[in-house]
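Q: Is it fine to ask for two folds in a single conversation?
A: Yes, each is treated on its own. Send the first.
Q: Here.
A: Result:
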Amino acid sequence: MKPGEINIEEMKKKRTELLMGLWNYFLEVNFFDSKEVKLSYPLVNEIIEHYSIDCTILKYRYKIDDKIERSKIAGLMTALIMRYRPINLLTNEVKSKEALCANETFAIIYGLAVCFEDSLYECMKIVQMQWFHKWFDEFKYLLHVRHYTAESLAFIFKTLRVFLKTK
């Protein structure tokens, strides 16, 4: 493979594995109630397909010869998760507030994991930091109520990486 070329199948597999791993983690720790919400696999496939096309275009447009910055991947995937909203409510009565913002939570944690080398472990270390919950609630509000672009989300993740002194 030439420099700058993308192994699309490998990229899709990596993004899907992280997405499904995060979903399974949320179910394991009972963060989401599987009686209230479910993950739509067709929508997950749409997200991954859209992502692979966008990455190809991004590399071409910006003449990226190497890997795409993790913050850009995080911003793009967060925006796509919010566009397609793959977590669906199963009932008309929701007992937990988490279920109403399940896609926002999922998108933010996915973006964080991408920023930190696709590691849910590293992501969970950040979640334990004192400032995190206020930042997280404000980010959820942004995704749930306000307007944003994939580029603005990428900038948020890039700022966070710099703030945490992570490369």
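Q: Second one now.
A: Result:
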Amino acid sequence: MKSNLLRRFVAGLLIAIPIVVLGIALYTVFEVIQFIGDPLFGLIGTGTPFDSAIEHVLAGFAAGVTLYLLGYAAELQVIKDRVNRLDRLLVLLVPGYTMIKGFIGGVVHEDAMTEGFRPVLVDTVDSTRIGFEIERSDSGKVVVFLPNAPAASTGIIAAYDAERVTRLNVPPHRVMEMLSFYGAGLTDLDKLQIN
């Protein structure tokens, strides 16, 4: 009972953090648009008590259009190249960046974001272990992070032949949750979809 409560609390926390960050970002964008647009919105003032509401609606609409245009720009190849370069730099400079990116990618079901932290099963000499694929080389080697339980942020890194590594179709945060509870839930591995 206690472990279920704690597991749900941790899962809720992992879901709440990106939502709170997104909410703060959207509020900031809204405030910036409203600040920039105040002179423009003042020109269309009707002198009624609804001016403030109209201003907020227009600022929200402008923020939505801005976010859409930023999303469109993110799909341009020039922007993708710059984002990929920034991504590689962050991997080198920020400890845990790959892990955080993998968690977020698993939560939003974005496969491109889970690259570099994809859950896998590894056949070792005497057992099968769960871990995270860090990278795959052309020579057939796969670098895998094998976390410890319950401190899943620590572990070992090893290179295995590709045939010993099986990708799992499960989000990284789910695997970390299992590991933080000493492997509870790992017996359901036969039910996991394996790629």
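Q: Anything structural to flag on that second result?
A: Two points. Residues 2-75 form one domain. The CA atoms of residues 66 and 72 lie 10 Å apart.
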